[in-house]
Design goal:
By secondary structure, the chain is of the alpha+beta class. Helices cover about 30% and strands about 25% of the residues. Strands 1, 2, 5, 6 and 7 form a 5-stranded antiparallel beta sheet that branches. A hairpin with a 5-residue loop joins strand 3 and strand 4. The longest helix is centred in the first third of the chain and has 22 residues. It is elongated. About 10% of the residues are buried.
Length: about 230
Amino acid sequence: MTTSTKQAPDSTSVKRPMPGWIKVVIALVAVLAVFFAGLRLSVVPGLRDLFGTDTHDRSGPALLKSIQDMSRYEAASGNFQVVVDLEKDSRFLPSAIRGTRTLYVGAGSVDAYVDLGKVGERDVTVNGDRTSATLRLPHAALGKPALDPDHSYAVSKQRGLLDRLGDLFSDNPNSERAVQLLAVRHIGEAAQQSGLTTRAEANTTGMLDGLLKSLGFKEVKVSYGS
């Protein structure tokens, strides 16, 4: 009687070699990890310079839009600073969810001027021997407030959760425009109460008095009115 014996299959699985492209990817990831770790920890010299950012000004040339002849005598200038605290809330949501609050320091200047272009022939009187002159000028006025970007800055910005999420998906270059406009308005209001126009008229009177007397006039009278 003949018995046949069958060998059981070998349970040991044969390991397949790792594909070459996987080894390349792993090696590349390892190299990048070492580079960025060295950059962060400043272990590898020169890495900060290697991954540093360069600034390139690619702006086009400035275009001349118009030219205006000026007849104003800028007689005084005031420098102002205001702290703007602007808060925007939602009606039905707490500020932690929806709302913003910005604390902004705005610095700017306002000029006071006398418009000599409005002076007519009837506003200037000179006597026969040209030793006395009488001038009637318009009242001094205030120019537009000019915000100084080099000395204006945001102290703090508080935003709700929804506003922070919105910032992740949008880039708003005018995010500070509201506080800037508010700062300009407050600076203009402060200039109106500062007595700049009175100072400008006094300076204009002194300028004209010195100028006309250097031309031979002995008496100079300057008045202001509309």
